[in-house]
């Protein structure tokens, strides 16, 4: 088999795959740790939710333990009490902001991607807040499921509407329209 024959077969296979994907309609967006099991709540969805809840809570507790060691390091270094208060306030404020931004991310897409990128380091410092938000949300649903479900259902509805309006051949309607002069 020559190189040109295999290239044409690859092109044909890619065209068929694209046509099948377009014919199948919209696809659900996967969620981290859940894939697309959130659509029908199958494939171990409940077990995954439990694992995400336990994992995020364990990670938050482990992070608190590590932060305790860091705070003890400040005490061993005999840093002033002002520095200790600043560290506690910084982690509390950053964790609160990280919790709020993570929670908002489960219900709506960020309007400004540049602003989200600017908050990335702040969310990194307050990672405990993000982990707690992930834990709380995973008690009721997969984090971000409600947002993706509404987007997916809207896409399916629009796809079905477009598909049903185009089932007839547009060329066959030619005789029904008045001719232009």
Brief write-up:
The protein has 181 residues and is an all-alpha fold.
Description of the molecule:
Helix content is 70%, strand content 0%. Helix 2 packs antiparallel against helix 6 and helix 3 (81-107) packs parallel to helix 6 (127-138). The mean pLDDT is 82. The chain has seven helices and no strands. The protein has helices at residues 3-24, 45-76, 81-107, 113-118, 120-125, 127-138, 145-165. With 181 residues, the chain is an all-alpha fold. The longest helix is centred in the middle third of the chain and has 32 residues, at 45-76.
Name some characteristics of this structure:
single chain, 181 residues, mainly alpha
Approximately how much beta-strand content do the residues carry? Answer: under 5%
Helical percentage: 55-70%
Low-confidence stretches: none
Q: Element order, helices and strands?
A: HHHHHHH
The total of helices stands at: 7
Principal-axis shape: elongated
Rg, please? 26 Å
Q: Please describe the biggest sheet, giving its number of strands, its sense, and whether it closes into a barrel.
A: none
Average of pLDDT: 82
Count all strands and give the number: 0
Distance between the termini: 56 Å
Helix/strand-derived category reads: mainly alpha
């Amino acid at each position: 088999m020559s190189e040109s024959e295999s290239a044409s077969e690859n092109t044909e296979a890619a065209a068929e795959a694209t046509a099948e994907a377009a014919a199948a309609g919209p696809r659900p967006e996967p969620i981290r740790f859940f894939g697309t099991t959130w659509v029908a709540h199958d494939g171990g969805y409940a077990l995954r939710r439990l694992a995400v809840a336990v994992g995020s809570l364990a990670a938050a507790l482990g992070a608190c333990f590590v932060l305790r060691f860091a705070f003890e390091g400040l005490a061993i270094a005999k840093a002033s009490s002002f520095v200790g208060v600043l560290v506690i306030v910084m982690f509390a404020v950053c964790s609160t902001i990280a919790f709020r931004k993570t929670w908002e991310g489960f219900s709506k897409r960020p309007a400004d991607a540049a602003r989200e990128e600017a908050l990335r380091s702040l969310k990194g410092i307050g990672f405990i807040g993000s982990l707690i938000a992930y834990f709380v949300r995973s008690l009721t649903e997969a984090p971000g499921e409600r947002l993706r479900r509404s987007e997916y259902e809207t896409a399916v509805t629009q796809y079905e509407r477009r598909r049903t309006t185009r089932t007839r051949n547009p060329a066959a309607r030619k005789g029904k329209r008045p001719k232009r002069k």
